[in-house]
Amino acid sequence: xxxxxxxxxxxxxxxxxxxxxxxxxxxxxxxxxxxxxxxxxxxxxxxxxxxxxxxxxxxxxxxxxxxxxxxxxxxxxxxxxxxxxxxxxxxxxxxxxxxxxxxxxxxxxxxxxxxxxxxxxxxxxxxxxxxxxxxxxxxxxxxxxxxxxxxxxxxxxxxxxxxxxxxxxxxxxxxxxxxxxxxxxxxxxxxxxxxxxxxxxxxxxxxxxxxxxxxxxxxxxxxxxxxxxxxxxxxxxxxxxxxxxxxxxxxxxxxxxxxxxxxxxxxxxxxxxxxxxxxxxxxxxxxxxxxxxxxxxxxxxxxxxxxxxxxxxxxxxxxxxxxxxxxxxxxxxxxxxxxxxxxxxxx
Length: 347
Ligand code: SF4
What we know:
It is an enzyme of class 3 (hydrolase). This protein is of the alpha+beta class. The chain has helices at 6-18, 30-40, 45-58, 62-67, 70-77, 83-99, 108-112, 119-130, 139-148, 158-168, 176-189, 208-212, 268-276, 336-346, and strands spanning 228-239, 244-248, 258-259, 262-264, 288-293, 297-310, 321-324. It has a 4-stranded mixed β-sheet, with helices on both faces. It has a 3-stranded antiparallel β-sheet with strand order 3-2-7, with no helix packed on it. A hairpin with a 3-residue loop joins strand 5 (288-293) and strand 6 (297-310). It is elongated, with a radius of gyration of 24 Å. The protein binds iron/sulfur cluster. Residues 144, 147-148, 190-191, 196, 198, 201, 203-204, 207, 209-210, 215 line the site of iron/sulfur cluster.
């Protein structure tokens, strides 16, 4: 499938004149381009800009980031969500420092072998930073390409991704980074999911879906399975100095982040009592509730106050628990749900 000769010229010309200004577009530093691509996964540009600025200010080089401890890295990621991205990126940057003298490998296979680098990140960073002929296929490109070709293949299928990558290969033999960004920018600004601006589209003359009137039927994507919902109980447990108990999550979702102790509701009281080796008796009614959505799952969280205060001198805490003074908020990275609970307590 090869669109008319002028397709690439049209889209690249439009991009060169209409692209949004973003800090990572002002640099050729592959570390910064890589960071931006990681932050942009599942997150909007306008949210990422501040995080990107703060992160690059604090960790301006690969060496700086590789020396940082994970808690601090997570702190700079706090609120962006999908924290495994941060942990994998940190891990991969350490690999670059150790195995490649702190220089991001320009060989696509070497780059792909780093932790957390999947086919999309590989193609994006390698094409934008080094002009390697690799097409990026993200949600925007799936939509644009399906429409341009009036292609109703299911974009949830791996085989569709493979086919699209093959079809896009001829366009990335030169100016790969610019072409890839043109496609993604067109999807973000013009060829949007619900109200595409076909009248202002630079590639309307190349678009089969526009021709056939099928734009809003594309792309085709089979429905997600229903999200799982988990009922969670959070306990606000204080010591006799007014400090709150926090637990660091380990080897599970949101690994490395801090939380007020939280357990699945069905056996929450026995779990926390077992962990503390102390019978915990929360008030029967929750004092606050919230819902937290992940891509694949929803947490319904109820927060319970525990009236008894624990004597700090008598209780030895497990390794992953600490007493937390509310004024030391900046020392801990909280996922969004825990930050909401913190704000509730702080009033
Ligand atoms: Fe998308 Fe419309 Fe442009 Fe086709 S003409 S690429 S559907 S914006």
